[in-house]
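Bug report (template v2)

What were you trying to do?
Predict the complex of my protein with magnesium ion.

What happened?
Run completed; filing so the output is reviewed.

Input:
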Amino acid sequence: MPLLDVRDLSVVFKRKGTAPFTAVDNVSFAVEPGQTVGLVGESGSGKSVTSLAVMGLLPKRGAHVTGSVNFDGTELLSLSMKELRNRRGRDLGMVFQDPMSSLNPVITVGRQISEVLQRHRGQDRKEADAGAVAMLDQVGIPDPARRVGEYPHQLSGGMRQRALIAIALACRPRLLIADEPTTALDVTIQAQILKLLADLVRGTETAMIMITHDLGVVAGLCDEVNVMYGGKIVERAERHRLFAEPRHPYTHGLLRSIPRLDAPRGEKLVPIKGSVVDNIPWEGGCAFAPRCPNALQRCRQVMPELEPEDARHLRCHNPVQPAAVAEGRAER
Amino acid sequence: MLRFIVRRLIQAIPTLFILSLLVFAWLRSLPGGPAAALLGERQTAESIARLNAAMGLDQPIYVQYIKFLGRIFTGDFGTSTVSGDPVMAEIRRSFPATIELGLCALILAVLFGIPFGYLAARRRGSFFDNATVISTLVGVAIPVFFLGFLLKYIFANQFRLLPPSGRYAVGAPDITGFATLDGLLTGDLAATSDALLHLVLPAAALATIPFAVIVRITRASVLDVMDEDFVRTAESKGLTTPVIRRRHVLRNALLPVATTIGLQTGLLLAGAVLTEKVFVWRGLGWLLATGIEQRDYPRLQALILLAAGVYVLVNLLVDISYAIIDPRVRVGR
Ligand SMILES: Nc1ncnc2c1ncn2[C@@H]1O[C@H](COP(=O)(O)OP(=O)(O)OP(=O)(O)O)[C@@H](O)[C@H]1O
Ligand code: SF4
Ligand SMILES: [Mg+2]
């Protein structure tokens, strides 16, 4: 049985005076214990909203969530606020994108870790403070005994993100959601943080959802990858399969737009033309059609379903053929 | 922390220095000079010359300024032309009345302002919120003396619930000059409650504007902070609502409120003049009002310097409280 089973999750934002906006549209995926699953897609494709829905962190007013989020046999969407708070921080941890604004500026880093331990582990202040030092040490912050007493503005960007990771992992949650944890950081620091996350979850039962718009991040980390476009999952596959043989034209385009070590020398990067259209036109066709080189007449009339095919899940009427993948490479 | 306080104290010196220069220049610029101003209608060329010599006004200007500073430091502000008493004695007599009134108003404004603003923010868009926002708009716009007369008319004249003016009816023996304290110190509780009753109306009138401003700033600030990423992080930790509100929302939201309280304390001095006039409250504002009417320059000069000093002190207190709440101020720079 999977640890997390998301079924037909939809999130619609409704505000007075504006048309309802579907940010997440019938998304289903599962995460096994110890597994790392990627959620990839351009900005605005609904990755963050999906993760916030799982955590129950969407605003109560204005966001309508339907479907099912089953965590280890418990339906999270029907939990009371109180029961949900008992789970958050203990079973489910989350690391956010911007480490500066995600830490409270007027409380010491140590306190921000120890308060989780006090809340969920029933520890007294002294134990929890010691636990905070241990956590900072574990996420690779040098001189943790001194750093616990410091405030977020005294830490570098990379250290702040490490502190956020320490907060999220303090109670050893069974699921860690990392929402673009490296986007706000320097390239060299990015690699360090990714390695830290990988080291922390590898060989443990902790499952991880890695959210990113950067396939390079996914490449080194994820077991399975979900590619999202316009609020829907368009392709899901085991990582190696996806990288070796992207079948969805959007995935294919994404892979061609990033630099790869295994690509032949001199290969040019090809960006996907256009951008995510704001209101999702999935009804009556494929939302990617305006940007898709493979689009057929049918693509503008019938919405493709996510179907198992070729050892993966695919939502496309006219997928890229395996031969064409190789050809596309030879061409360049 | 101590270093921070000392540094801020040193920074206050130039401000006070410039202020003393301004007051000095103001006195020099009066028509006919200070002597003529002091003598008023009884002046003759001769009496002016005599007074000029007596006051050292025939000496070079920088000598005069240094002497002026010397007098300030020894607390010698001359004698009031209205009462004939030394100005310092007048101030010492009236000081407790104003402090009592101002402190009372400030406590009311903060004690009610922060919770009201906080609750309005928590229930944004509700009837309570809308009612609060509208009444604070009215509160800021209404002139203090009008409000004072209105309160007096309703609660003192019509319903006779509270005394209309003055600081006390009987009065305990004068020990500290603070009517409420003196009652407590002498064990005369009746005197204390009498003094408190006399305080209600003027303190309410004086508190209205700072209360309204504090409500509005608190509300806006809490709304801002509730949208911050770190509040979402706190939620993601599963913390309970009271902890999130106290530790994460309120602490951050109070930063701008602290600054506002400081600014409002400065403005209280101005409000006190009007309030004291309406309620015949014999404090510094009363001294100032009568001083202006009678052109009592020695008294005005002393009161202006005092106000400036208090203002600088209040700002210092605000900075210190800011540093207590916000670590970035403490360590930064
Ligand atoms: N609270 C909200 N109210 C209304 N619309 C929202 C809200 N939050 C997100 N959206 C919209 O939902 C869509 C998906 O947003 P989401 O944040 O999930 O994108 P994302 O895939 O995480 O992109 P990014 O890479 O920029 O983080 C966006 O178009 C966004 O404008
Ligand atoms: S369904 Fe059609 S338009 Fe959509 S991705 Fe596939 S080929 Fe392109
Ligand atoms: Mg996002």
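What did the reviewer find?
Chain A touches chain B at residues 55, 57, 84-90, 92-94, 96, 98, 101-108, 115-116, 119-120, 151, 153-154, 164, 167-168 (CB under 8 Å). Chain A has a mean pLDDT of 89.
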